[in-house]
């Protein structure tokens, strides 16, 4: 599995897990190739979890964001 598939899989499972709380994570990419991880609740943007990450860092970023949100919700 390549790194793209790794973070895509993590994002899929994170959003399936967070869906029961009405939350989701969304990755956006800017013109320079940096990614931001956005936190959404019930279809509305809440905040950026993190910004200025490269694609090879996304698996760790998404795992951290997912688990951090779960800790805050429990």
Q: Give the termini separation.
A: 32 Å
Note the total helix count. 2
Major β-sheet strand ordering = 1-2-3
- Work out the radius of gyration: 12 Å
pLDDT averaged residue by residue: 93
In N-to-C order, the SSE pattern is HEEEH
**Roughly how much helix do the residues carry, as a percent range?**
40-55%
Largest sheet, strands/sense/barrel: 3 strands, antiparallel
Q: What's the total count of β strands?
A: 3
Q: What number of domains?
A: 1
Shape: globular
> How much strand content do the residues show?
25-35%
Structural class: alpha+beta
Uncertain ranges: none
Question: Any overview of this molecule?
Answer:
The structure is a single chain. Helix 1 packs parallel to helix 2 (58-73). 43% of the residues lie in helices and 32% in strands. The chain has one domain (3-68). The protein is globular and about 35 Å long. Strand 2 (35-41) and strand 3 (44-53) form a beta hairpin. The chain starts with a helix and ends with a helix. The protein is of the alpha+beta class and 74 residues long.
Short description:
This protein has 74 residues and is an alpha+beta fold.
Q: Could you list some keywords that capture this structure?
A:
2 helices, 74 residues
Question: How do the strands and helices of this protein lay out in sequence?
Answer:
Layout: H1 3-18, E1 23-29, E2 35-41, E3 44-53, H2 58-73
Antiparallel strand pairs: 1-2, 2-3
Helix pairs in contact: 1-2
């Amino acid at each position: 599995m390549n790194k793209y598939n790794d973070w895509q899989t993590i994002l899929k499972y994170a959003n399936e897990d967070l869906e029961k709380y009405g939350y989701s994570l969304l990755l956006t990419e800017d013109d320079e190739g940096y990614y931001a991880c956005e936190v959404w609740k019930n279809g509305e943007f809440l905040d950026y979890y993190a910004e200025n990450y490269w694609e090879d860092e996304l698996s760790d970023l998404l795992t951290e964001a997912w688990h951090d949100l779960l800790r805050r919700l429990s």
